[in-house]
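A reminder before we start the practical. When you read a complex entry, don't treat the lines as separate problems. The point of joint prediction is that each chain is placed relative to the others, so the output describes one connected object in space. Small molecules and nucleic acid strands, if listed, are placed in the same frame. In the example below there are two entries. Take a minute to note the order of the lines before looking further.
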Amino acid sequence: MEITQEQKAFALNGDEAIALAIKQSDVDVVAAYPITPQTIIVEKFSEYVADGEVDTEFVCTESEHSALTACLAASATGVRTFTASASAGLALMHEILYVTAGCRAPVVMAVTNRALSAPINIHCDHSDSMVERDSSWIQIYVENSQEAYDSIIQAFRVAEHPDVLLPVMVCLDAFFLSHTLENVQVLPDETVQKFVGERSIPLVTGHEGKNVPFKLDPANPLTIGPLDLYDYYFEHKRQQEEAMQMAASTIVQVHDEYGQLSGRRYGNGLVDAYRLEDADIATVCVGSTAGTTKSVVDTLRAKGVKAGLLRLRTFRPLPIAEIRNSLETVEAVAVMDRSNSFGGNGGPIYHEIRHALFDAQARPHVVNYIYGLGGRDMPQSIIRNIYTDLQEIRETGQVNSYVQFAGVRE
Amino acid sequence: MSLKQKGWKELPIAGVCWKPATEYLTGDWRTFKPVYDLEKCSKCLLCPMICPDSAIRWNKGAQEIKFDYDFCKGCGVCANECPMGAIIMVREEET
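Here is the predicted structure of the whole assembly.
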């Protein structure tokens, strides 16, 4: 891989890596409310603000609902905005997530995936962002802090692309990534600045009949996101779906361009396949569990087992073609979900993988393991057992149980 | 509806209004329409004050009330409040 930029290694945890990415990306407004384990992002960034190292308007709001509203409003005036949340904070923003996407505001948010209450749990779980998969936000799940840093920078370019204009959430695992120190390769300030560039504002037809920049400006007044009755709302939502479809190719493009600067790529930007080309059995997951699973795959491969892994990096838009192409030839697939759709016969990723494969030429057996809820550790031993189950399914052609809870005490 | 219906490819994004609200004739929504009897009117000017859509104007020259049927939604508050019974609500004709 060509590395055209000289990078420096810093010891950073996921939150600090994100704060640094924000610092370098020329963000105009950050409005946020603290919640474990995102607090370090905002604390670190506020230090940059206090020390005059960034030219960002930092707004302390009274809640996450207000934080996102402030970002949305600022974004509507044409500036670059960022916020971060998790768990109950993200849930509190729920209403405004839809509003932000509906107003086509390219807000970027870091979500440190944490379990939802009750009971109160501050640890890693994907329930908070999985429930927002219908909100028309682009969702990227990162495997490590390096990818968190890289993905935040790419997120601005994807969100602000005139064919997209949708908000992006970059999701990283609570504590495993947010609070764990890693060597992160950091690009020079000027390189990041040049890469994200200035936010480009497309033109839109306003009520004076003129084509004006799509931003709130007294010189060219506009109404964004007004009352929309049954005669037009549906068309506006159809536009959002189109933007999601365009987002897939934009993510790939931006990811590749960034790869030329950094030397780092994560699959094609949508999915990251590990030793999957000739695999007989495979698991699918998002987040840091993929890192652990890669070790398991290597161990199995050394023993001659043709095991592989498909990590979904982009969950929205769902990369159906890549999922189908990657898994069609595998014989047994286990989808590992760090969240559950209660009463839905399995977790969200399981549902969507089955959906993606339903029309495939050759369909593997697809089973589900709900794991790690509330930060329950997902060690290599449990993942190895999952691969053992897959081998059995492959040999017998029988599935005893489609949905299981891996790691819970019976 | 009074405006030509655009498809999703033509519409501006984010619900941006491409026409001012004054060109969206909400009078379309009416079921009952107010009818005015000048002879009963005491010129008290209560009705222009209470109309929620500002669809009643006082014509000083002609010394009479004028209804803006482009924007009157037929709520009937004017008829309800008129002390002289100079306004009655009449069902709109089916079109």
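Discuss with your neighbour: The mean pLDDT of chain A is 97. What might explain this?
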